[in-house]
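Repro case for the chain-ordering regression, as requested:
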Amino acid sequence: MNLKNQDIISINDLSKEDLLHILKVAKSMEKPNPNLLKNKSMATLFFEPSTRTRLSFIYAMESLGGEVLGFDNASSSSAKKGESLWDTAKIVEKYCDVMVIRHPGEGAARLAAEASGKPVINAGDGANQHPTQTLLDLYTIQKVKGTLNNLSIGMVGDLKYGRTVHSLTAAMSHFNPTFYFIAPQALQMPQTYLDELKEKGIKFVTESNLQKVSNKLDILYVTRIQKERFPDPVEYEKYKGYYKLDTKLLENVKKDLKIMHPLPRVDEMDKSLDNTPYAVYFEQAANGIPVRRALLALVLGKTK
Amino acid sequence: MKKELTISAIKDGTVIDHIPSNATFKVADILDLKSIKSMVSVATNLPSKHIGKKGIVKIAGKYLTQEEVNKIAIVAPDATVNIIENYGVKKKLKVSIPNQISRVIKCSNPNCITNVEKIETRFSVLSKNPFKIRCYYCERDMNKEDIEIV
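-- result from build under test --
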């Protein structure tokens, strides 16, 4: 496969072979050629705040010798003057070789990709997709478990609104997993995703009590209850702080369980877990670098 | 008493019959009949043995293609479409839900970029019965009850 000039918009656009290929290239990008993307430029169009994603894209590009331009909030762009996203993308494509976009509108990256002749990488479009997060999650799982196949994956927290868990579910579905979806009923995995799993014959369990299933898990993926995704603040107040994981959790788990979290965390995961061998979330965040290097190099046609 | 046709027959063109009454003007919108220069007759609330009240659209001098006909499948799945030549039925077209739907439907997700920017909506049809579509942009699925015509 050749990802040169391809847009990276949705994890659903990538086949199992694409995913494995990107992970393979990412591995080779742990120690990359510092001049690989010399004379190439990346524009970051961040209409919404982000720390990790934006900084890791910038670092990934610069560590390959490329240049970076862009803005990091909508108020410093022409969007504030009422410019359409289509026009912004049309103009920015003239200044760059690859465009990275984060926007609150769902489908925004797809639209920007239609406007732009240069490849577009989606760095998050509202509650919809964040494919580079999913790829770094896969990369982390592969790295810490040595495989993606036949794993028991628990996901806990906001499974209703959390885009990372939706995309991770879709991506891991290629690798014969067993899913444990752990959330209060109101924040459970949406029925449409469960129906898709049933159709594909993938095993899953829905549960609200983490203790009941914690001993079965190879991976526990913890997510924050995201205030910004709740349409009703009263509903948010009801569920914030619903899960508070600490070292008590570890009494009944497999020795090689690994705990992941896309970060930022609020109070769902206690700091006491950080220095245990189970916690891999900081390593997970750092894995964004080789994965984003790989994507940049692939879409710019500088590696195959 | 001599029985008269509510709207007169056309010599050549397309007749769409058995449109549910509440969808008659939506059909006119979807087919963009207001931009057609030839004679167009639109009648609604006509008595119908099968569906209670129905609408009919007659377009003189224009032969709708199967693709155009399929666009009305969302609002009038049981409509009958006859292509008329010299006052006779030359061909009958069956309305069928297309695999891709553009423009006609509004995305039900308020955060979808199609509800923010002025762009045409696009959906892929996941299942025709039960009707289920997915937005090309925000990737949300919609059922029949979520549908709002643009």
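Ordering looks correct now. Chain A touches chain B at residues 10, 12, 84-86, 103-108, 110-111, 125-129, 192 (CB under 8 Å).
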